[in-house]
Amino acid sequence: MNKDYLANQFSLDGKVALVTGASYGIGFAIAKALAAAGATIVFNDIKQELVDKGIAAYKEEGIEAHGYVCDVTNEEGVNSMVAQIENEVGVIDILVNNAGIIKRIPMCDMTAEQFRQVIDVDLNAPFIVAKAVIPSMIKKGHGKIINICSMMSELGRETVSAYAAAKGGLKMLTKNIASEYGEFNIQCNGIGPGYIATPQTAPLRETQPDGSRHPFDQFIIAKTPAGRWGEAEDLAGPAVFLSSDASNFVNGHILYVDGGILAYIGKQPQ
């Protein structure tokens, strides 16, 4: 084994990667990493404005990304987008189901419609997109699917009942895809981020009027052995690994990138 062997194992040269909801944030960071490893990047977002901003952001990074407007909860729209990608770019080798939403509402204050919205985007959409790309992966003889789960795939916390339910379901969908399609050389794994500093979590990190840290910010730093929030770039290496030949015998696992929070019970009282 030498450097060339390892470089080839992690190379994504010639691969087409679809990262959903990747105009910014975690999806953008993952897509940049896959591009750096050699992949051709395709992404979608729900609005043309977001797609245009995404294309411009990728261009600033020296990446020629292909952007599509698509609501990933709409099966007909997803099937149409995948067909268009296959025609214009190539068969999708790597799928990263990244698009997601969260509604921080106490369970008994949440409407059934709000609950359904979260389940639709965070659980149903990954099913829809995976279902659309798997047939061509089978024909090609290989494929990589990464579902962006969460540490809430394992834990509960107040105000995130819908999100935790969806991410717990996504963990099990990941395992089922691996079980059902592993024989076709398709690997399906998940990445479970901890608390990551993104626009979505910005309200939880706002400095208070008196200059102190937000109480939730203090709580997370105290609960995380790493002593910090994660950065979107912390997910880059795991994403490249799970997209590459280096993970060809890794299937049905969730890789938690959480600074150790799931392993930590907290400091012993003095």
Automatic annotation (TrEMBL):
UniProt family annotation? Belongs to the short-chain dehydrogenases/reductases (SDR) family.
Protein name, as recorded: Short-chain dehydrogenase/reductase SDR
- Which domain of life does the UniProt lineage start with? Bacteria
Query: InterPro entries, from UniProt?
Result: NAD(P)-bd_dom_sf (IPR036291), Sc_DH/Rdtase_CS (IPR020904), SDR_fam (IPR002347)
Q: Name one GO biological process term.
A: bile acid metabolic process
**Organism this protein belongs to:** Lacrimispora saccharolytica (strain ATCC 35040 / DSM 2544 / NRCC 2533 / WM1)
Lineage here is: Bacteria, Bacillati, Bacillota, Clostridia, Lachnospirales
**Keyword Cytoplasm (UniProt):** no
Work out whether the entry's keyword set contains Oxidoreductase.
yes
Q: Which keywords describe this protein according to UniProt?
A: Oxidoreductase
Q: Which GO terms describe its molecular function?
A: oxidoreductase activity
